[in-house]
Write a structure and sequence with these properties.
- The protein has two domains: 3-135, Cytidine Deaminase, domain 2, CATH 3.40.140; 137-368, 3-Layer(aba) Sandwich (Dihydrofolate Reductase, subunit A), CATH 3.40.430.
- Helices cover 28% and strands 25% of the residues.
- The protein contains twelve helices and 18 strands.
- It has helices at 3-16, 52-60, 85-92, 111-118, 129-135, 137-145, 175-185, 195-201, 214-219, 244-247, 282-291, 303-311, and strands spanning 29-34, 37-43, 68-71, 96-99, 122-125, 149-156, 161-163, 190-194, 229-233, 252-256, 268-272, 275-276, 279-280, 296-300, 317-322, 332-333, 348-357, 360-368.
- α4 links the parallel β4 (96-99) and β5.
- The radius of gyration is 23 Å and the shape is elongated.
Length: 369
């Protein structure tokens, strides 16, 4: 690892500290180096707050003059909720800026780097780009396509079963796996489920701070807790005000084909979309979520919605917890998909990460579309 990579690695480490709170903004870290010493560093914590470069420049003070700034994403060049970071770097007298990647946000998209170059600053980009991409998969996909990054979480037995024929499913996987889910939930913008899951399990679909591990709690204080938006596909208007998803803090969006006149709390909004097959149009739903600045969707649902998301090519990542037990052929399967005529039609996945979580295995896979 050379000197530039060492400082960019530190900037990436800083950026990760914002992964629970920055939504809908990207995770960004910045390190300022002068004469071989780090004189300033910072990361973006939340939308509307100072960007990573501003935190780092404040720490560096006068030492920023003649320095090199390492930033995980191209500095912004426009006036949003905060002034342009490119201007702040120029004013501070930074000599060189190294970024991991350009920002695909149409409001930036190379303009930040151009502004720095026009001011006589040496600019480089592309250092550790793959690592920077993985840090902001949701934000980057939304900026490039208008769609959020969808993670489909499922849990099964060794024989791919999710519940007994009676419907009993608590709990197939271990307590450790459920705590692991909390940490991944906490990083998403929205939690997607269905009215079938709400009626069957009456879940909270929230992030519970006391179930986060100590390492996460250390970088994510309870007072900063951000509840992802709960998005419930409810084409038949079966969810009612008494259900737990409605009663919890944070926003809840009910996705329906027509509104009802129930007396909903202020945190509940009904999103109306056209019908498609036996439910709502899920492609339009994802477009709508993108327009509402949802970067990442964490889907926890039954086999019908899971199968529909997969069949429509909307799943970017499958997070599958597998418990070392067998439920038998009368138990429920993972996906409801159209009957396959031959094996060539079977959906395929690439496994990119496998970890043991307690007694279970956690597989992370990308569908092959």
């Amino acid at each position: 690892m050379n000197r530039d990579e060492k400082y960019m690695a530190r900037a990436l480490e800083l950026a990760r500290q914002g992964r629970f709170t920055t939504s809908p903004n990207p995770n960004v870290g910045c390190v300022i180096v002068r004469d071989g010493q780090i004189v300033g560093e910072g990361f973006h914590l939340r939308s509307g707050g100072p960007h990573a470069e501003v935190h780092a420049l404040r720490m560096a003070g006068d030492k920023a003059k003649g320095s090199t700034a390492y930033v995980t994403l191209e500095p912004c060049s426009h006036h949003g909720k905060t002034p342009p970071c490119a201007d702040a770097l120029v004013t501070a007298g930074v000599n060189r800026v190294v970024t991991a990647m350009q920002d695909p946000n149409p409001q930036v998209a190379g303009r930040g780097l151009y502004k720095l170059q026009q001011a006589g600053i040496e600019v480089e980009h592309g250092l550790m780009m793959a690592e920077a991409e993985s840090l902001n998969r949701g934000f980057l996909k939304r900026m490039r396509t208008g769609f959020p990054y969808v993670q489909l979480k499922m849990a099964s037995s060794l024989d791919g079963r999710t519940a007994l024929a009676s419907g009993e499913s608590k709990w197939i996987t271990s307590l450790q796996s459920r705590y692991d889910v909390q940490k991944l939930r906490a990083q998403c913008s929205a939690i997607l489920s269905s009215s079938s899951t709400v009626l069957a399990d009456n879940p909270y679909l929230t992030v519970r701070w006391n179930e986060l591990d100590a390492e996460t709690q250390a970088v994510y204080p309870e007072e900063n807790l951000r509840q992802p938006v709960r998005v419930i596909v409810d084409s038949q208007n079966r969810v009612a005000p008494h259900h737990q998803v409605i009663q919890q803090p944070g926003h809840c969006w009910l996705v329906r084909t027509k509104a009802d006149e129930d007396n909903w709390p202020e945190n509940v909004e009904q999103i109306l979309l056209p019908a498609h097959d036996v439910g709502v149009d899920l492609v339009l739903l994802m477009m709508q979520l993108g327009k509402r600045q949802i970067n990442t969707v964490w889907a926890e649902c039954g086999p019908l919605l899971a199968g529909a998301l997969l069949n429509l090519g909307l799943v970017d990542e499958l997070v599958l917890y597998v418990a070392p037990k067998v439920l038998g052929d009368t138990a429920c399967g993972l996906f409801t998909i159209p009957e396959l005529k031959n094996l060539a039609e079977a959906p395929e996945f690439n496994i990119f990460d496998v970890q043991q979580v307690g007694p279970d295995l956690r597989l992370r896979l990308r569908p092959v579309y």
